[in-house]
Amino acid sequence: MGVPFPTGLSLLQSEAEGWVAWAWGMNGVGSVMAPLVNLMIAVTFGLHAALLLAAAIYLLALLAFRSWASSRTFVLAR
């Protein structure tokens, strides 16, 4: 879980540095809201539904990132 955000930040910084602060802000909002919303979903619809929704959101994020990355050419510093 700790790899995608720093990787995304480094890519974002190389492509559009002005959006890095926005990404940090959205990460903060997500870090506060996700546990609360997930708890409400789990209590209302069950843990299975909450886990399926989380998996779907991660899959959508992966697909969005792959789509964005395939339209760009960049080199990661190692």
Walk me through the structure.
This protein is mainly α and 78 residues long. The protein has one domain. 79% of the residues lie in helices and 0% in strands. α2 packs antiparallel against α3. It is elongated, with a radius of gyration of 15 Å. The mean pLDDT is 87.
How many domains is the backbone divided into?
A: 1
State the helix count: 3
Query: What portion of the residues fall into strands of 2 or more residues?
Result: under 5%
Between the first and last Cα atoms, what is the distance in angstroms?
20 Å
Mean pLDDT: 87
From the helix content, strand content and strand pairing, which structural class follows?
mainly alpha
Helical residue percent band:
over 70%
Tell me the major beta sheet. Answer: none
Find the count of extended strands (DSSP E, 2+ residues).
0
- CA-based gyration radius: 15 Å
Overall 3D form: elongated
Low-confidence stretches: none
What's the oligomerization state?
Answer: single chain
Order of helices and strands: HHH
